Amino acid sequence: MGLGIVVLLIGVPLSFLMWFKPRELWRATESWKFRDPEANEPSDFAYRLVAIGTTALTVLLAVLAFTRPDSVDSASTTSTRSTKSPATRSGSSAKRIQVWTSTPET
User: Fold this and answer.
1) How many beta carbons lie within 10 A of that of residue 15, not counting itself?
2) Alpha carbon of 79 to those of 15, 75, 76, 92: distances in Å?
3) Is residue 52 domain-resident?
4) Domain of residue 29, residue span
5) pLDDT of res. 11
6) pLDDT for 48-70, tens place per residue?
7) Does residue 100 lie in a domain region?
8) Comparing 6 with 36, which gets the higher pLDDT?
9) What total of structural domains would you count in the chain?
């Protein structure tokens, strides 16, 4: 559950930025790499494609994070099977069987 909340806190705002302010986000994160940022700015199609990918990844990660059982989930820690061995389960002491091997006398 905690991972799902983190995914949503980061992914949803990032997806909104990619849909509504893609140029500003590109200028803040990528334009510093180029001497002439305006000449190297992505096309509108590239912006839309990245927005679709960001949204799809956010949805996928959120679904995986919210459907994965937590390690402290009661279903994963409570077992109906007994952890005792079959010999001690009924309260009796475990009996050992010793197998003797001998060579036949001739």
Assistant:
1) 19
2) 41, 8, 7, 23
3) yes
4) 2-70
5) 86
6) 999 999 999 888 888 888 887 66
7) no
8) 36
9) 1
